[in-house]
Design goal:
This protein is mainly alpha-helical and about 375 residues long. The protein folds into four domains: about 45 residues, no CATH class; about 100 residues, no CATH class; about 100 residues, no CATH class; about 90 residues, no CATH class. The strands form four sheets. The chain has a two-stranded parallel sheet with strand order 1-2. A two-stranded antiparallel sheet has the order 3-4. Strands 5-8 form a two-stranded antiparallel ribbon. This is Reverse transcriptase.
Length: about 375
C-alpha cells in the first residue's frame, strides 16, 4: 500500500530477511525466494545481520565472527598509522580519536567477552609502546596524565561508560521524543522485574532474570555498568513495606559471618517476603514464625534464632519498618533507589565525556 500511494519501491537485491527467534524456517525461506529475497539470517548463519550498523547476534559463532571483524579493523588501522613517524603521545591521540572510535558504536550495544578485550588491548599496546624499553603495564598507559599515565582510553572502561546513555533512559525522567526509552522500560519491567513491574533489578543482581546472563543479551552491558557504581548506601534508603518484601534477603542483612548460609549462591534468590511479614494488626514488619507457614520453615527459624543471638544483624533498610507501627503496606516503588543514585557525585563522574576529559586534561 505504501508503494502504491507514494510510488516508492523496495530494493529487493538489498533486502535481507531474518528469523526473530533465531530458528530456521524453510517455508519462509521459500516464500522470500519467490519474491527475489535470497539473503536469510538465523542462528546457523556464519555472520550476523546488521541493522543500522548494529549486528543482530543470534549465536556464539556469529559473535566470534564479529570479534574477528572488530579486531581486524583495529589491527589494520594500527598498521596504517605505524608507517608514520609519531611520538608515543601522538600514537595515544591517534588511538583515542581515530582507531578505537571505529568500534565505540558497536560496543555501545553489543556484549563481548573479556578474551576479546584482552586481544584488543594487546593490539593497542603493541602500537602505542612498540618496542620501547622498559615495558610498562597497560594500566599505566590508561592512567590520567596528571597521575603519570598517558590518558589512553581503556576499551572495557569506555564500554561501561557508553552504557550511561541507556541507564539514563531507564532511570531518568520521561523523554517525550525518545524512540528507545519506552522499549527499554518495557523490556526491563517485562523480563527483569521479577513480576513487580519495577526497575529494582538495576540495583539488586539477584532480582534479574536468568536471560540477563546470556552472552548475546544487551542488558549484560547495562547491568555491568550499574555494578560499577558504589551502591553500598542502598541501606540508607527509606522504602515502604511493599517494596521491601520483593527485595532479596541479603539486602536487609548488615553483618553476617563469611561462611553464613545466606552467602551461598543457591540462596541468593531468597526474598525478604520468605522470612519477614507485614503484620497488618500493628502496621509493622516482623520475622515470620511457624504460624505464618513460611515457605522455608527451617531456614526461617534459623535466621530468627541467629538474629536473636546477634549472630546476624539487620541493617537500616528494614529497622524503621520493624520499629514504627501503624504504617501502610503501600505499592512497590523503586523511586527512592533511583533518586539515591542519580543525585550522587559518582553519577556525574561516570559520564563518558567527563571521564575522557579527566584522562587527557593536563594540570
Amino acid at each position: 500500500m505504501l508503494g502504491y500511494d507514494t510510488n516508492a519501491k523496495v530494493n529487493i537485491h538489498k533486502t535481507e530477511a531474518f528469523s526473530l527467534d533465531g530458528r530456521p524456517y524453510p517455508e519462509s525461506i521459500d516464500v522470500f525466494s519467490t519474491q527475489g529475497i535470497t539473503k536469510w539470517h538465523d542462528h546457523s548463519s556464519p555472520s550476523p545481520l546488521r541493522y543500522l550498523g548494529f549486528p543482530l547476534i543470534q549465536s556464539l559463532t556469529q559473535r566470534r565472527y564479529l570479534e574477528g571483524q572488530l579486531l581486524q579493523t583495529v589491527q589494520s588501522q594500527c598498521d596504517i598509522f605505524s608507517q608514520r613517524q609519531l611520538s608515543i603521545r601522538g600514537r595515544v591521540t591517534i588511538v583515542n580519536s581515530l582507531i578505537l572510535s571505529k568500534i565505540w558504536y558497536v560496543l555501545r550495544l553489543v556484549h563481548l567477552p573479556k578474551d576479546f578485550f584482552k586481544k584488543l588491548r594487546s593490539i593497542v599496546y603493541q602500537f602505542v609502546w612498540r618496542n620501547c624499553k622498559p615495558t610498562i603495564k597497560y594500566a599505566q598507559l590508561c592512567s590520567p596524565i596528571q597521575s603519570g599515565g598517558l590518558g589512553l582510553l581503556d576499551p572495557m572502561i569506555q564500554q561501561r561508560n557508553l552504557q550511561i546513555r541507556w541507564i539514563e533512559q531507564l532511570l531518568g525522567d520521561p523523554l517525550p521524543h525518545s524512540c528507545s526509552q519506552p522499549f527499554l522500560l518495557d523490556h526491563m519491567r517485562r523480563f527483569h522485574s521479577a513480576g513487580s513491574g519495577s526497575r529494582l533489578a538495576m540495583f539488586f543482581p539477584s532480582l534479574r532474570a536468568p536471560i540477563a546472563a546470556h552472552s548475546t543479551n544487551f542488558m549484560v552491558n547495562i547491568f555491568a555498568a550499574m555494578e560499577s557504581f558504589d551502591l553500598e548506601d542502598l541501606q540508607s534508603v527509606s522504602c515502604n513495606a511493599a517494596t521491601l518484601l520483593v527485595l532479596p534477603l541479603s539486602s536487609v542483612l548488615a553483618l553476617t559471618p563469611e561462611d553464613y548460609w545466606t552467602t551461598k549462591s543457591r540462596y541468593s534468590k531468597l526474598k525478604v517476603s520468605q522470612f519477614f511479614t507485614f503484620d497488618r494488626s500493628f502496621g509493622c514488619f516482623r520475622p515470620q514464625v511457624s504460624i505464618d507457614r513460611p515457605t522455608t520453615p527451617r531456614l526461617a527459624a534459623q535466621l530468627l534464632q541467629d538474629i536473636q543471638n546477634r549472630t546476624v544483624k539487620l541493617n537500616n533498610l528494614i529497622w524503621p519498618l520493624i520499629l514504627q507501627q501503624n504504617q501502610s503496606v503501600g505499592d512497590i516503588d523503586d523511586t527512592p533507589f533511583v533518586e539515591l543514585l542519580t543525585s550522587s557525585p559518582q553519577w556525574i563522574a561516570y559520564k563518558p565525556k567527563i571521564f575522557r576529559l579527566s584522562l587527557i586534561e593536563v594540570f
